[in-house]
Specification:
heterodimer, A: 142 residues, alpha+beta, Heat Shock Protein 90, 35% helix, B: 109 residues, alpha/beta, two-stranded parallel ribbon, 28% helix
């Protein structure tokens, strides 16, 4: 198993660093271009979530991203240093008349993550939240 | 040019807002949505240079939807990549900002 570790401060500028890393890792393991785009978006959403909701944008708190590559899959673990999340809603969230009118324009991220990767899970404690995303290589279990 | 990330082109009732940043994300969102205060009856967002859009970027684009609806204007997207078309469809953004082809604008020039 190969492991790539990226640590960033909780500043959304550095989400772009993680996204660029996801691009490189996706290419390195031979994911199809559209799967790499899915990976980049899912990782971006998870990292922004860790920055904003986990670490409350406190720059001194880190977001740790680990890419784990093996023969069947790419696993990405995104860990924040927050106080844990009570629950995570992966439900389908779309643009609707009422959320346009109320100005409620956020909340698509978790739905997109869940829809774009092969599987994902969240574990949370008072030491922080870890989101794990998995994309399987062509021909392996999804 | 209205700001650093939008290059504005106008003809008749049409404004084409060429998004010049490659990432429509949390960093560029504020500058992009600032352009929604100056729309025309037909406003087109051009994504030709855009390589990445996330949910923070979608939130910024929704400001254009809100603004267009308040003014009774039409809003379109142009040069949307297949991946971004997929994402727009997933969140049903395409219902509120349908795509338009560049050739369809010729009639307004």
């Amino acid at each position: 198993m190969e492991r790539v570790l990226v640590n960033i401060p909780s500043n959304p500028v550095f989400e772009r660093v993680v996204r660029a890393s996801a691009d490189e890792v996706g290419q390195a393991i031979g994911l199809a271009p559209d799967r790499i785009e899915d990976l980049k978006l899912a990782v971006s959403e998870a990292v922004n979530n860790a920055i904003e909701h986990g670490n409350h944008s406190q720059a001194t708190k880190l977001v740790e991203v680990v890419f784990l590559l093996d023969h069947e899959k790419l696993e990405v673990r995104i860990r924040d240093e927050g106080e844990g999340a009570e629950r995570v809603d992966f439900g389908r969230r779309v643009v609707e008349e009422h959320n346009i009118e109320t100005g409620m324009h956020r909340g698509f991220g978790m739905y997109l993550i869940n829809a774009l990767v092969d599987d994902c899970e969240v574990s949370s404690s008072q030491q922080g939240t870890v989101m794990t995303l998995r994309l399987y290589r062509e021909g392996y279990h999804r | 040019m209205t700001n650093q990330v939008i290059n504005r082109e106008e003809f008749g009732d049409v404004a084409v807002l060429h998004i010049t940043t490659t990432s429509v994300d949390a960093i560029s969102a504020a500058a992009i949505e600032a352009a929604c205060t100056d729309m025309r009856p037909i406003t087109v967002l051009d994504f030709a240079d855009v390589a990445f859009i996330n949910s923070a970027g979608i939130s910024a684009l929704l400001k254009f939807v809100v603004s267009a609806r308040k003014s009774g204007y039409k809003l379109f997207a142009m040069n949307v990549s297949p991946h971004h078309q997929k994402i727009f469809k997933m969140v049903e953004m395409s219902r509120f900002m349908p795509t338009i082809e560049e050739r369809d604008l010729a009639a307004y020039r």
